[in-house]
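Hey, I'm writing a tutorial for new members on how sequence and structure tokens pair up, and I'd like a real worked example in the thread rather than a made-up one. If someone can provide the structure for the chain below, I'll link this post from the tutorial.
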Amino acid sequence: MTSIFKSSRSKDLTRTQIAQWMHDCRASTLALFDDMNYETFCCQPHSDFSPVGWHLGHTAYTEALWLLERSAGNRPLFPEYHRLFAQDGMPKGDRVKLPPLAEVCDYLDAVRTNVLDYLKIAPIEQQERLWRWLLQHESQHCETITLILELQKTTTKQESVGFLDRTSILNMVCIPAGSFEQGNESLDALDNERPVHQVDLETYWIDRTPVTCKAYRSFIQSNGYQNSQWWSSEGWQWLQANPVVQPLYWREDPTYANHPVCGVNYYEAEAYAQFVGKRLPTESEWEKAASWNPIAHARSLYSWGNQFPDATRCNHNHEWGTTTPVDRYPSNPVGCYDLLGNVWEWTSTWFDGYSKFESYPYPGYSQTYFDDQHRVLKGGSWATRPWAIRSAFRNWYHPHMRQMLAGFRCVSDAKV
């Protein structure tokens, strides 16, 4: 009787926690749409991204599909929305004609009411991973909403660059040779994070912080965007077709000098690394610096340990609404700052499945992108929700994309 009681109580606590997380996540989502006009709701500032209103409706569609239809066996609540808000329902360019915000919010409310009713009776022990996946799904779309809103703020005007500063080489820390455990097998782990596996690495040095605007300025001032010697052949080809002279979200403001550079693509990060005599880290090098405690000889979920992210540990979840100085938060056990939050960081690794990869909850979620066309980004940004930020989390984008809230840090095989 006691064991049955404890088991029942544990399930109730899990349901309560999930309900609270869903409430908190949705409140953060809806806050992005406060006082938004219809033009912004339907605007598509870049062909690779759907309007923010589509992402909002898609979160409700996905929640209903996996919980109410496929898990509970219910009929669709709003079948008229299936083609509009499904991932493969229509081309992104056709998603600009959306219902009004109030109508989409009614859709979200109706789905959520039914979802919470189902949560009371759902076989949570079998489904907890799915509920956590849906939390992260909404969190990821919230970040996409944020970057689309940032894109709407940008202009085509190229701002002038100020003073030249060549004191830009950042301090580095040594990561000794040895093996570590890469990946994650917690209930939150997405399919592409699994399984945990041993990786052996030689000694390397890694920047203590992401590359700052002050440091990147030296690349701009030294005509880095005009000098082919720093660029790979693919990067130079991209630059000739897209003649930019600074990062997408560049701010000509001295108060941002110690903030991480934001809005660079892989080619720009790669060129800067070449310019300073370094290189971009592999995913394994980045993750070892972020997750492996050399004193405890153990892997942690986050760069600071295993405690859930909050406002004291990293810049995330729209805490500041923008980037912060790279040393605003405490360093991790190896002496690195800002490994989680602030800006995503490019790595040199192509996105692929680990050995013994198993897709979840459907093959197309990750496996479609194992195409040698996407580079891995790590760490999360100032807009990343706490449910989607951890050392093992893997983001992926085409190397030419610079719209994400992304920066980078460099590594070297010998101290620079």
